[in-house]
Structure formats: structure tokens, C-alpha cells
Amino acid sequence: MENQQKTGTTTIALKCKDGVILAADKRATMGNFISNKEAQKIYQIDDKIAATIAGGVGDAQTVMRMLRAEAKLFKMNRKKPMTVKAAATLMSNVLNNSRYYPYLVMSIIAGIDKGPKVYSVDPVGGLMEEDYISTGSGSPIAYGVLEYELRKDKTVKENLPIAVKAIKVAQERDSSSGNGVSLVTITEEGFKQFEDSEVAKILG
Known about the structure:
Blueprint: E1 11-15, E2 19-25, E3 28-30, E4 33-36, E5 42-46, E6 49-55, H1 57-78, H2 84-97, E7 105-113, E8 115-121, E9 127-129, E10 132-135, H3 139-149, H4 156-173, E11 181-187, E12 190-193, H5 196-203
Antiparallel strand pairs: 1-2, 1-10, 2-11, 3-4, 5-6, 6-7, 7-8, 8-9, 11-12
């Protein structure tokens, strides 16, 4: 399990008028071998923060555990939740401090505090805020859909079909992406993980 890789993947996060959408495929690969068809690539960090991962499974799981723990400690000590930017900055610092023995992981940190926020964090800690981000081998294909169709002035509900479409289109041409779509939204109401049946309805 620890040797599985998720570098072949497609993950996205989108900023909308009232929240954020995170989506990913479910396939984990080891070279040309499909090692897992239900891989977790979206992690809830706090009530209104989540992250996507691409890269080595062991590294990704370690960093996500660390981030979740720090978010809980922050809330206990400060009596308020960590902001999305703080979570992304923490992730950036962890990765930058280990750059000589790096964690092989590319992440997106997204959520809502004083408005929707989406950040990418590269394996050596580079931090960028964007309206939408895609990572993994299928990202160039997903970006084609997002560039053409995404509207950040639309609601989460209105942009859901675009998020799912971006992952599905990437799966059509990227052999390392596949086996369904994981879908999460974060709004003022909180974190929502969609069931496969709900994703199928969005696809129509």
C-alpha cells in the first residue's frame, strides 16, 4: 500500500460565489498497473476546509494526518477554527522544511472562512491562490474544460456539473485517471461528501 503512487491522477478545486468544490478521480496506479479503484484523494481537514492530494500514498497520508491534527490543536487553543490560508501556509511550511528529503505530494487546500479560498501547494512548499486549480496527469485536459466553462460568479450548485465534467473528460484521455468521481462541496452550511448516486444524477 505504501508503494502505491497517485501521481497519475486528476484533482480539481473551484472557487464559486458561495463556496468551493473539490473533485477527483478514484484510481491509484503503480506504473501501468491499476492498484486501487477506490483511492481517497480528498480529505476533510476541518469543518470548512478540505484538501486534495496527488503523489505518493504514504507521503500524502502522513501530511494529511499532520494537517488534521494541527487544525484540531489550533481550534482547541484559539477557540476558533484555522483559516484556509493558515492551513495552506502550514502545509507550505511543512513541505518547504522537508525539501531536501521531500514529501512526494502535490496538494490543493480549499475551503471557506471570510469567503471561498483555493490554494495550491507544490512538493517544495510553493503556495499560490487561484480561482481554480487542477493537479495530476489529467490536469491539462481538466483545465481545458475549466478555462472554457467555469464561472466564479455562479453558485456551487450551478458549477457542480462543470466540476464533474472536468474529471470525466480527463478520464477519457488520461489512462491514470478513472474509476469514478469523488465530489465534495464546502459552503457556509459546512462540508458535504456526495454519494456515487448523486454524482451520477449531476452527470445526467
